[in-house]
Amino acid sequence: MTVKTKKSPRFWWALAIFSLMGQVAWVVENMYFNVFIYKMFNASAADISAMVAASAVTATLTTVFMGALSDKVGKRRFFIAWGYILWGVSIFSFVFLREDLIGKLLPMSASAAATGVSLAIALDCVMTFFGSTANDAAFNAWLTDSTDEGNRGAAEGINAMMPLVAILVVFGGFMFFDLAKPESWTAIFAIIGILVLAIGIAGLFLIEEPKIAPAESGYFRSIFYGFAPSTIRANPTLYIALAAFIVFNIAIQIFMPYLILYYEVSLGMTDYVLVMAPAIIIASVVTALWGKVYDKKGFAFSGLFAVGGLIAGFCVLFFTRSTIPVFIGSLLMMSGYLCGMAVFGALIRDNTPAGKSGMLQGVRIFSQVLIPGVVGPMIGKLVLEGADTIVNGDGTTSFVPTADIFLAALIAAVLVLPFFAVIRKAKK
């Protein structure tokens, strides 16, 4: 029987604060940067797909190199705290990304809007570098190092619920802003940048450094450790789980970059925040508890129900348009998504070799961000080709997302199911 190890209140506070603030920053990037360039610079679906892909590549390369470096140094707190500090500074830099300022600073540019999209993608990559160093590489390695099989599901449940809590926080905060006005985005980037920076400073004192020895292998060997055939052969369950995680996250990335635009533009839900808030709260509670289900029942049971909820949510969202059914579909989708993230995250951590968590964060982000972040939005873009357009107040046009993105996501989610039998066989 697995012994449940008790963690200190300091650990749980650090987990909650850094997971939440990191997810707030990621929610703004993953769900609202798309809205930002859509509303401020009339970005197309191709522009959004390019930004998501560029960010995914940056996140993966950063996590591979910086995760290995944190293993080599044998420190997590330094990379988390200073990464958050610089992350906050980079978010604050978006304050200066406004069409009027671009026109003044770059008067020779052919189009301030097109230049704004290009600058947004470049700054997004800079921000992603610091964010991935702090969160994807160092924080996730710290969480693996600081937990064991007796408490990892509970910790991962809290970690996995934070994206939904972050969505609630961001939705609630954004209610006070008119996102069609540049000054609203200036305030948003200033507030979030300062908060992330402040959390990074607090991390210098709050985070407990796990007891890990610096990696003995060379730095460049550590970088490629997770991709070595010998490592794959020695850890079959881990890599099968990562393959399933790729397909799972492709399903998410097909629709996620367009979700807010779908609610607001396609369904005309100007009050979508009020509609989604209850769904987010309920899904957050479910996700926090679902990690404990993983600890007690294992991956097969908890994972199948999570993916099943996700599939059910996609079905409801594809076939319905009115408020109540959309609420139910969104609740099922969000619960399945975050519960799936919790159980896949716990399974991956359980099968990560001891002392190698930093080196393997690159492989994890490869399956969670890079491939899904490139393939998913590309599928979404193909699905939305030929979508209807609307004419904006300034005479420009914007595309209207359709429910077909949920059908495409549904097909991808169904492809996750066969992996459960393969994982069970590999574990035996």
Task: Record keyword descriptors for this entry.
2 strands; 77% helix; mainly alpha; Growth Hormone, Chain: A; single chain; 428 residues; two-stranded antiparallel ribbon; globular
Structure description:
- The chain is mostly helical.
- The protein has a single domain (9-207, 222-427), classed as MFS general substrate transporter like domains (Growth Hormone, Chain: A, Up-down Bundle), CATH 1.20.1250.20.
- The protein has 17 helices and two strands.
- A two-stranded antiparallel ribbon has the order 1-2.
- Helix 1 (9-41) packs antiparallel against helix 7 (182-206), helix 2 (45-73) packs parallel to helix 5 and helix 2 (45-73) runs antiparallel to helix 15.
CATH class: Mainly Alpha
Shape: globular
> How many H/I helical runs?
17
| Oligomeric grouping of the chains | single chain
Radius of gyration: 21 Å
Give the overall pLDDT as a whole number.
84
* Low-pLDDT sequence parts: none
Order of helices and strands: HHHHHHHHHHHHHHHEEHH
